[in-house]
Amino acid sequence: MRTGDSYGPPTYRRAVLADADRLADVHIRVLMVAYRGIDPQEWLNSLPQQLEERRSRWKDRLTNLPHDPVVVAEVEPAGVVGFAVGGPARGEPPLGYDAELISIYLLPEHQRRGIGHELVRRVARSLLDLGFQGMLVRVLTANPARLFYERLGARSLGIDTVSIGGQELEETVYGWSNLDLYFPPE
Ligand SMILES: CC(C)(COP(=O)(O)OP(=O)(O)OC[C@H]1O[C@@H](n2cnc3c(N)ncnc32)[C@H](O)[C@@H]1OP(=O)(O)O)[C@@H](O)C(=O)NCCC(=O)NCCS
Q1: Three-class secondary structure of residue 123 per DSSP
Q2: pLDDT in tens, 95-130
Q3: Where are the domains of the chain?
Q4: Cβ neighbours, 10 Å, residue 70
Q5: Residue 186: what pLDDT?
Q6: Which among 112, 117, 150, 152 is the best mutation to test ligand 1's pocket, defined by most ligand atoms within 8 Å of the CB?
Q7: pTM score, two decimals?
């Protein structure tokens, strides 16, 4: 396997419909590694069988929600190695947190090189352009990615539960109340 250093520098762009299959693939690959020991193993084992369904969900999202930012990171020669998705906050968000970082996933060999931070910044800037002000993100409390959000200045807003593979898991809700402050333009 190549190490992070043997890849070219990352570049970023908005996702297009032709990325749908690769996005589903990257998403499943990252989930299977990052959530081992966190999500139910039976559910993780079933992910490869969900590939086709997830590909069509990505096509639906990219077709039907064209304003919601989906930003991809690419490196040569691998192509797309990660992505982040933003949109209006789901459920009943706390006052002032009108947007949500819906997901962010990066292949393991490309983590800890600043790509995640840049993906969040770009999603946040797109959401600001759309008129949003604050952003929340939900993360399983057992996921060390929590520390990534804390490092980016997010504050913990509370605890919730989510059902995954038939199990109730605890998630922490984090938020940035002022996106412009935490994610300045380049
Ligand atoms: C979480 C994720 C998006 C972070 O992206 P990344 O490119 O690896 O993060 P960055 O390099 O931008 O990290 C910035 C800082 O956040 C902190 N950080 C990032 N990942 C961390 C981790 N797993 N544990 C602790 N701190 C972490 C570090 O302080 C890091 O700075 P440093 O590397 O100089 O110490 C990526 O690791 C990932 O895809 N993880 C698996 C999927 C996942 O859990 N997604 C979140 C679902 S809610």
Answers
A1: helix
A2: 999 999 999 999 999 999 999 999 999 999 999 999
A3: 10-182
A4: 24
A5: 84
A6: 112
A7: 0.96
